[in-house]
């Protein structure tokens, strides 16, 4: 019985012993590290990780005595070798794998980590496509390029550049980083105009070839995203090609700051070739822990134990080792086991030294991965914790600028504050809106030593001037034409282009290239398409801004307001009860009527004292005065002028009446007898509903508008090439091989009607558009030319150019406002009116002078000595008018009587 009772007790003790044995801490924990030992990042990372391992093993509070063993393997910057080395390291039963630093190798090894459930923690693989959804066992302890490219886009937006050129390494790191930049720039309404990839193992000749390509492009803002290069060969290529002038902008991603941080502080001469370069450096807050580590690193450099300077990735590598150590310690404290089991998928797979069948799955890999993703502690690089997609919540970037062989920090960028001159105070997980207004950077020195912001692009240079296409018109050459003798491009549009170019604040080398044969007007849609297809850089001419063209190119501000109108034969002499008023314009009628009134008054003044016909009661005088004036028109006046001045005025007045009446008779005869032409068209609606033929100018958008927008059958549309064909087709009419009406743009129609009075515009323009110059999409020159055109309109130069070409015989718009083509204008008779007015005024002045002289003589003879001398002005005026009202003979008798009276008394 005792033996039977001892058996369960023995079993219980055996189970307790086995359980206690399983919970014992392992003596060694293996962690793998695959990276390139002899690289800019690898040299600092290797030493940093060795220091971290030493600190972990020397810290009794971490892993509780378990040795942290780091198994390193050199990938030698090769995806193939890195993958093999990773498999060999994993074969040694590592609980986690650090690295690789290359994004391309990280993509490959991540699949292995997924299969074996070994967490892969990278301190340098910044490819944004290394996502937790595709690679659930991948964790990044550095900032993703998604954030870095957002910082680059903010810098581009801050300086208001719209286009950049991207130079990048043609691998996963380069391509995916630039893809992230494309998305970031699109949010800022900017873009990458040209992408120039470099081979993975590029040399100086490869870089020179790529940079030479960029010289023919317009943008001058370069974003360079390549691997760190201890020789800075890229800048050697820039120097050789003389691409360090002030119109260039070089924006470097963090490979640049990593490279220069890796150099020894004693050697600063390398910065002399980097003047004006702007780059990003991962921002790591200054803490006591970081300063102590830097001091420790400097001592190693002094002892020549370390050949590299400490980079941000060296600090990330140090913290990565600590993240794994703390997580493994947490795993063991939670009762997790460091155990491995064979994978059924790899059974029977062997290859030389690499025994794939012996690769084992880490049993606690998923648990360790969860612990790693929940890390939250402060390391050398600051607070270390991760987003839900297992990206490090970084503290942002420094914006650095090389000035006079020194590295200057000109600002900071973080995901929650954007660009700022103050370092980020706290790391925030929640993204907040960053407005353009509160962005700021310190003054940057650009290539060439200038602090003024570069324009960021060049339109053209002397080696490759702008190719500006122009339509070689066969009709209406006033707008644009090619002189066959001098081979000069002339016309209203060309003069306007030259004037606008003078206002643009930079030189624009260009050459004109004709489009069309000159025998017929070319298709303007094809011309615009050639701009969009990069056959031409721009197009200058009478190009209408219509919807389908704006989808392909950018237009300037319209310099002419236009629209489609209908021109047809018109009836210039329609019967009317008031047709007798048509020979004179309103101004002419008004001046003529006023002249009759003036002549009536002046003749009355001149004849009142000497002519009995102009005397009598006031009513009779007024009737006589106006009847006399208007009767001169018909030569039926019975009153005769007596005074010399009155006859002089009447001679000139009758001559004026003779000319006016003759002209009126001729004009009225022309209006009543002109050959009448009429059209049943009253507007666009009646034109659509009719079945008549409609003419349009070759090359105009009127054809597509009538066909597509108004659904007029193409069989009704007749193409016409010249104003002469316009006139001929309209005169023949729709039933005789011609057209009933022509639809064309207003400027052409105005020019066509300049010397043709038998045709006119029916109704109002039924479309609204304008003419502008066409440029390639997003061309900065389109904006500057628009500004120049607005300035030309404001200072009156636009109107001067218009008058130069279209107002030699009077502006079309002024002629269109005339009510009748056969009307007589005041401008034709102003000289005669001036002569008559001058003679009338002279006669009136002579009369007044003589009358005033008589009145003064009369007052002296009949002055009363007893009357007061201070006679009021009103009394003088009344007395003067009474004197004028007296007949001339009576005044003469008074003067004669006064002369003879003293002689009689003396006898």
Structure explained in plain terms:
The protein folds into five domains: 28-141 and 293-346 and 355-383, Rossmann fold (3-Layer(aba) Sandwich), CATH 3.40.50.2300; 145-288 and 395-420, Rossmann fold, CATH 3.40.50; 466-563 and 771-807, D-Maltodextrin-Binding Protein, domain 2; 579-673; 677-767, D-Maltodextrin-Binding Protein, domain 2, CATH 3.40.190. Helix content is 43%, strand content 16%. It is α/β, with parallel strands linked by helices and 907 residues long. The chain contains 28 helices and 30 strands. The strands form seven sheets. It has an eight-stranded mixed β-sheet with strand order 7-6-8-9-10-15-16-17, with helices on both faces. Strands 18, 21, 22, 23, 24 and 30 form a six-stranded mixed β-sheet that branches. A five-stranded parallel β-sheet has the order 2-1-3-4-5, sandwiched between helices. Residues 467-808 form the Ionotropic glutamate receptor C-terminal domain. The chain crosses the membrane at residues 588-606, 648-674, 830-852. InterPro entries: ANF_lig-bd_rcpt, GABAb_receptor_plant_PBP1, Glu/Gly-bd, Ionotropic_Glu_rcpt, Iontro_rcpt_C, Iontropic_Glu_rcpt_pln, Peripla_BP_I. It is found in: Membrane. One of its GO terms (molecular function) is signaling receptor activity.
């Amino acid at each position: 019985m005792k033996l039977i009772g001892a058996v369960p007790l023995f079993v219980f003790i055996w189970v307790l012993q086995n359980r206690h044995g399983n919970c014992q801490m392992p003596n060694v924990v293996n962690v793998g590290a695959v990276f390139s030992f002899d690289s800019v990042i690898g040299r600092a990372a290797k030493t940093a990780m060795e220091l971290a391992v030493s600190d972990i093993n020397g810290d009794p509070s971490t892993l509780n005595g378990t040795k942290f063993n780091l198994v390193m393997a050199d990938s030698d910057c090769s995806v193939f070798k890195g993958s093999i080395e990773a498999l060999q390291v994993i074969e040694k039963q590592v609980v986690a794998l650090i690295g690789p630093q290359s994004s391309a190798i990280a993509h490959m090894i991540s699949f292995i980590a997924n299969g074996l459930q070994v967490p892969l923690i990278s301190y340098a693989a910044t490819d944004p496509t290394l996502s937790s959804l595709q690679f659930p066992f991948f964790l990044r302890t550095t900032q993703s390029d998604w954030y870095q490219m957002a910082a680059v886009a903010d810098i581009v937006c801050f300086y208001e550049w719209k286009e950049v050129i991207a130079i990048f390494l043609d691998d996963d790191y380069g391509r995916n980083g630039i893809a992230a930049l494309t998305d970031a720039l699109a949010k800022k309404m900017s873009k990458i105009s040209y992408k120039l990839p470099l081979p993975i193992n590029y040399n100086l000749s490869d870089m020179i070839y790529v940079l030479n390509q960029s010289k023919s492009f317009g943008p001058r803002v370069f974003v360079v995203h390549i691997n760190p290069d201890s020789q800075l060969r890229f800048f050697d290529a820039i120097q050789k090609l003389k691409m360090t002038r002030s119109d260039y902008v070089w924006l470097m991603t963090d490979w640049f700051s990593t490279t220069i941080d890796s150099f020894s502080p004693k050697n600063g001469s390398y910065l002399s070739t980097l003047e004006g370069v702007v780059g990003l450096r991962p921002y790591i807050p200054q803490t006591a822990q970081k300063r102590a580590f830097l001091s420790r690193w400097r001592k190693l450099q002094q002892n020549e134990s370390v050949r590299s300077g400490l980079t941000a990735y060296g600090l990330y590598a140090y913290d990565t080792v600590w993240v794994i150590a703390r997580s493994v310690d947490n795993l063991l404290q939670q009762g997790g086991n460091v155990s491995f089991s064979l994978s059924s998928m790899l059974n029977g797979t062997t290859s030389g030294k690499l025994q794939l069948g012996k690769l084992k799955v880490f049993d606690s890999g998923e648990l360790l991965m969860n612990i790693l993703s929940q890390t939250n502690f402060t390391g050398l690089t600051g607070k270390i914790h991760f987003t839900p997609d297992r990206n490090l919540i970084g503290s942002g970037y420094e914006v650095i600028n090389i000035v006079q062989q020194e590295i200057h920090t000109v600002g900071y960028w973080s995901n929650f504050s954007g660009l700022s001159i103050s370092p980020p105070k706290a790391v925030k997980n929640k993204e907040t809106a960053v407005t353009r207004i509160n962005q700021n950077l310190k003054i940057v020195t650009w290539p060439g030593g200038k602090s003024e912001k570069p324009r960021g692009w060049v339109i053209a240079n002397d080696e490759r001037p702008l190719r500006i296409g122009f339509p070689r018109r066969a009709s209406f050459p006033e707008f644009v034409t090619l002189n066959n003798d001098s081979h000069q491009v002339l016309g209203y549009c060309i003069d306007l282009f030259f004037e606008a170019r003078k206002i643009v604040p930079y030189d624009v080398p260009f050459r004109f290239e004709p489009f069309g044969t000159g025998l017929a007007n070319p298709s303007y849609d094809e011309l615009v398409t050639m701009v969009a297809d990069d056959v031409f850089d721009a197009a200058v001419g009478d190009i209408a801004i219509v919807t389908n063209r704006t989808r392909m190119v950018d237009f300037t501000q319209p310099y002419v307001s236009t629209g489609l109108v209908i021109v047809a034969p018109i009836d210039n002499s329609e019967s009317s009860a008031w047709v007798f008023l048509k020979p004179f314009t309103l101004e002419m009628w008004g001046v003529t009527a006023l002249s009759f009134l003036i002549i009536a008054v002046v003749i009355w003044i001149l004849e009142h004292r000497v002519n009995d016909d102009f005397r009598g009661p006031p009513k009779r005088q007024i009737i006589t005065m106006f009847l006399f004036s208007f009767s001169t028109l018909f030569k039926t006046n019975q009153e005769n002028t007596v005074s010399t001045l009155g006859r002089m005025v009447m001679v000139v007045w009758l001559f004026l009446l003779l000319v006016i009446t003759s002209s009126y008779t001729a004009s009225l005869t022309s209006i009543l007898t002109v050959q009448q032409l009429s059209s049943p068209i009253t507007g666009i609606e009646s034109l659509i509903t009719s079945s008549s033929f409609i003419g349009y100018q070759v090359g105009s958008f009127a054809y597509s508008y009538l066909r597509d927008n108004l659904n007029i059958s193409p069989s009704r549309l007749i193409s016409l090439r010249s104003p002469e064909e316009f006139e001929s087709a309209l005169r023949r009419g729709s039933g005789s091989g011609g057209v009933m009406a022509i639809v064309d743009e207003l400027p052409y129609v105005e020019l066509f009607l300049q010397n043709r009075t038998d045709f006119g515009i029916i109704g109002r323009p039924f479309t609204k558009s304008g003419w502008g110059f066409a440029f390639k999409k997003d061309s900065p020159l389109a904006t500057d030319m628009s500004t120049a055109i607005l300035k030309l309109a404001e200072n009156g130069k636009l109107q001067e150019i218009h008058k130069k070409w279209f107002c030699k015989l009077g502006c079309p718009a002024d002629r269109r406002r005339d009510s009748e083509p056969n009307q007589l204008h005041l401008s034709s008779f102003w000289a005669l009116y001036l002569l008559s007015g001058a003679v009338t005024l002279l006669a009136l002045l002579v009369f007044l002078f003589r009358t005033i002289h008589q009145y003064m003589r009369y007052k002296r003879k009949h002055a009363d000595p007893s009357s007061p001398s201070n006679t009021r002005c009103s009394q003088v005026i009344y007395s003067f008018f009474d004197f004028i009202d007296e007949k001339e003979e009576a005044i003469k008798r008074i003067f004669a009587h006064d002369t003879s009276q003293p002689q009689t008394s003396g006898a």
